[in-house]
Structures are given as C-alpha cells and as structure tokens.
Amino acid sequence: MGSGEYDEVGLVEVLRVIIQVLRDVLGKAPSAGLLLDKYVKLALVVDEVINEGLLEAVDKDAIKKGLRGKAPWE
C-alpha cells in the first residue's frame, strides 16, 4: 500500500493547496454540489498537482499558472 514516500503531514499540505486553488478558480468555497458541477476544473487542478502518479506542484501560484491555457473554462 504505497511507497511511504509521502507522509500524512505532507499529504495534508497538498490537500490544503488544492482547496486554496479551487477557491480561487471557482470563486467560492468548494462544496460537493459545486465540485460536481465544475468537475472539469477540479480534474485540471488535481492533474496539475499530480503528474503520472508523482507529486509535481504544490505552490498555489505555479498551479494556477499551469492551468492557464490547459482547457477552456466553461
């Protein structure tokens, strides 16, 4: 079950960054209904953070910069 490369504390920080970026991108706090409605945006944010199973970006500004031009927002 996992390689043990990332511990719980590190993963909590990753989740915090994902939530912060989603708040910025969606314009409000993410909720279950909002995330289902804007699933494409959620998938793009997670894709920017995790690339081919490896943690890639955990800086909020770097993630938002990587999102630009990835796909048209609906």
Brief descriptors of the model:
single chain; 74 residues; mainly alpha; two-stranded antiparallel sheet; 59% helix; Longin-like_dom_sf; Coatomer subunit zeta
Q: How are the secondary structure elements laid out?
A:
Blueprint: H1 8-26, H2 32-37, H3 39-49, E1 50-51, E2 54-55, H4 60-67
Antiparallel strand pairs: 1-2
The radius of gyration computed from the alpha-carbon positions, rounded to a whole number of angstroms, is 13 Å
User: How many angstroms does the end-to-end distance come to?
Assistant: 37 Å
Helix-strand category: mainly alpha
| Count of the separate structural domains | 1
Strand order of the largest sheet: 1-2
Secondary structure: helix percent:
55-70%
Would you list the SSEs in sequence order as H and E? HHHEEH
> Can you tell me the residue ranges where pLDDT is under 50 for at least 5 consecutive residues?
none
Q: How can the largest sheet be summarized?
A: 2 strands, antiparallel
Work out the number of β strands: 2
Number of helices: 4
Tell me, briefly, the overall form: globular
| Approximate strand percentage | 5-15%
What's the pLDDT, averaged over the residues? 85
Report a brief summary of the structure.
This is Coatomer subunit zeta. With 74 residues, the protein is mainly alpha-helical.
